[in-house]
């Protein structure tokens, strides 16, 4: 090998080592595992504390619970939410009153007081920030994620989350899809809404995430009842058991931790 070629080879080797080092420093795309799975539970309902949290705790898995601040289950069972947070579950923000756009088709359930289409942007932002204050009073944390009520992103033509970018690590939407770190939109993270699907369906989604090395977010409401959108208790248990049995390959973490990891991957490497 002549001298110039040797220099080029050394430079190439150094470059590969630098990239590998930066990648390792960031913990790999999914904490050095095949994929990431986030288990999210919406609306602050009794079955969250009665069924979902105990099932997760029994296998030492952690999830994200998106709380509606005005939910009576928040007030009535506040010490239990606080204990769940201490065990590593994220208490996410699902707005103070869960306003949805009542002008859209199929929204007859939306009351005039909670019709997002009648909100101003400043009102929506103020209520969401008020809910953050409540959640911080419960868990003492200042970093968390947001979930769009009903998946509604806009008031009129205005994306209201644009004013909340500095208040949250990320926001979860309702559009289904598996995504690589580069594909994830931290202002509207994809999720699979579950309503009656089998354990086989849930586990197959995880296997697809493993194969494609992507992020998979589950969106649950009722777990074993308690909501019109529901997952069977046994199907939920089987999913959790699969995740636990394959934890060496699957990173299961709250949304805030996965979103922070993605943010870290997007930071320029320190030279």
TrEMBL record:
Pfam family for this entry, one: Polysacc_deac_1
Organism superkingdom: Bacteria
UniProt key word Cell cycle: no
Gene3D superfamilies according to UniProt: Glycoside hydrolase/deacetylase
GO MF annotations in UniProt: hydrolase activity, acting on carbon-nitrogen (but not peptide) bonds
Signal peptide extent: 1-24
Annotated CDD domains: CE4_GLA_like_6s
UniProt xrefs under InterPro entries: Glyco_hydro/deAcase_b/a-brl, NODB_dom, Polysacch_Deacetylase
GO biological process: carbohydrate metabolic process
Limits of the NodB homology domain: 35-253
Keywords: Signal
PROSITE patterns assigned: NODB
Protein name per its UniProtKB record: Peptidoglycan/xylan/chitin deacetylase, PgdA/CDA1 family
